[in-house]
Specification:
Number of strands of chain A: 13
Largest sheet of chain A: 5 strands, mixed
Number of domains of chain A: 2
Order of helices and strands of chain A: EEEHEEEEHEHEEEHHHHHEHHHEH
CATH class of the largest domain in chain A: Alpha Beta
Strand content of chain A: 15-25%
Oligomer: homodimer
CATH architecture of the largest domain in chain A: 2-Layer Sandwich
Radius of gyration of chain A: 20 Å
């Protein structure tokens, strides 16, 4: 049975759900499958779930696994991309998990593994907001804040694939406590988690806000991007103030990245950027421009919302697999 | 007359003085010449001075300019290294100065120009504290704070040679005012200039310190590295406290760079590191380790003082010229 058009399955392995896309050589999405990530399962069972969602995507595309060139996974945490090992993924409770080799055993095709933020930026660089630029910084804002860098057209990996933790750069020494245990990280000031903390604190302090009511109505335990969007539509002042403060911190974070790394483009990805688009990125851009060291960078450096939405990671995993395997 | 052993003249163009080294193919320093940088001169006259100090180094090495392969200059500010143009050097009051072409006209040999911090790190990477590492971050602490990055064994230049401005990354939002006009930059918290400001403020507030007396005695208008060293030797408490605060901020800055860029080594260069060595770098390293995101980076990432002292820039300029010109 011949390979069909170099089909690759890209998997975006998230902390709450995983998504598999079957993609052909021209980057057409042939099929999409999604399933919950059950973090209570032991790693080997969760890896069986990844194999299963990848297989389902192949079936939905009316193909068989042997017609597929590779399966490529974007996984959270610190990754040894040469050996497909997840060193540490706090989101999944994983340590030193041989994701690549085990998936390969399940599926019988080559498997590529890299960090979820890295593949997200590779996706935006190949097919979205970063297209055509050789130096692109990516900042992905969600429950946390992740970063990645394209340098000279290629993913910057650092000395052992751990680069990009821009969310854990300190921008306010002795600032609020971060999930990593340090204080003042960008993630503790401007992630969705930080915004939810600030909204709850404002409500606790007696300010009026529709956020908790919206969460109850939509049966969400967390302040998701859609809750933020809905609250802003109702002109919720607490939400607006909290968002503006986060945007200012993100603007300074973007300027730090531009002053340090001299990219020609910055892509703001993740759920909030996907939901709010220019309403999210506009104020970030404005602050970033104020903090640029080289004034002409304001003409030169484009700051754009991601264009691929939820598909950035899985599509980027496909593109990266093609590069790695020389397809 | 034959070229002699691929001799190159490296020039470190500083805001107060410039230094030229004649260096042979085995990186032996054949001659050293130094002269003051007169910032009141117009650019073309200052460039004539650079040509003159380079010529003197060649004469001291008992050579003639036609025996020299190239002259290579590390200049402050933002540089177009492809065309040898200094876009902007606030230290010199320069804007869009054709340093490379004009020097070439004076000297009749190929001229290479790059940023002073870039060539400093190239020097430490080739011949000093960065030797043997493929990913090296350099942080140079002096009147300002400069940065540079070696990635995959090569100088990271960014999209137009402007990368490395780690001194103007904000680490304390709304913190003290920086020379660049923004607030909370690392340079406004931990440069020699920031330390002098804090020492003067402490004295103003009535604290006892020997620093101003030492400056008067040594006829220095600024708190130089040697003044800092002398004050610490006299156990000056104001100096010690101010230095410790700067070291803590530098440790956080180092951790930001490691978390973002994943280097295997960090070189702390510049005058204070040269003067104080491990007494300067030790406390920086301790704080950086506390702020590392990946705990095993504390075993993996070496943080070292620069080894080449004042010669890092000129030697690095020589090494870079050899790479650029394929010598």
């Amino acid at each position: 049975m011949p390979k069909r058009d170099g089909v690759i399955v890209g998997v975006d392995l998230g902390g709450t759900s995983m998504k598999a896309l079957a993609v052909d050589a021209r980057n057409n999405i042939l099929a999409v499958e999604k399933t919950a990530t059950d973090r209570n399962k032991k790693p080997s069972d969760l890896i069986a779930d990844i194999a299963s969602v990848a297989r389902k995507a192949v079936e939905s595309a009316k193909l068989e696994m042997k017609q597929v060139e590779a399966v490529s996974v974007g996984a959270p945490g610190s990754i040894d991309h040469n050996n497909g090992i997840v060193h540490e993924a706090p989101n999944l409770g994983w340590k030193e998990i041989k994701l690549g080799p085990e998936l390969k055993r399940h599926l019988g095709v080559p498997v590529v593994v890299d960090n979820d933020v890295n593949v997200g930026l590779v996706g935006e660089h190949a097919l979205g907001a970063g297209a055509g630029a050789a130096f692109v910084a990516g900042i992905f804002v969600g429950t946390g804040i992740g970063g990645a860098l394209i340098a000279g057209g290629k993913l910057y990996q650092g000395s052992r694939g751990g680069a990009g933790e821009i969310g854990h750069t300190v921008i306010l020494v002795d600032g609020p406590l971060c999930s990593c245990g340090h204080r003042g990280c960008a993630e503790a000031l401007a992630s969705r988690t930080a915004m939810e903390r600030d909204v709850r604190a404002a409500i606790q302090a007696g300010q009026q806000s529709v956020v908790l009511k919206l969460m109850a109505k939509k049966e969400k335990s967390r302040m998701t991007s859609s809750i933020i969007h809905a609250a802003l539509k109702q002109d919720d002042e607490v939400m607006r103030n909290v968002l503006e403060r986060a945007q200012r911190h993100l603007g300074i974070l973007v300027a730090n990245a531009v002053n340090l790394l001299d990219p020609e483009r910055v892509v703001i990805g993740g759920g909030i950027a996907g939901r709010l688009g220019e309403d999210f990125v506009g104020p970030i851009r404005k602050t970033a421009y104020e903090y640029f060291l080289r004034p002409d960078d304001a003409r030169r450096v484009k700051i754009l919302p991601g264009q691929l939405g939820d598909n950035a990671g899985a599509l980027g995993a496909v593109v990266l697999a093609r590069q790695r395997l020389g397809l």
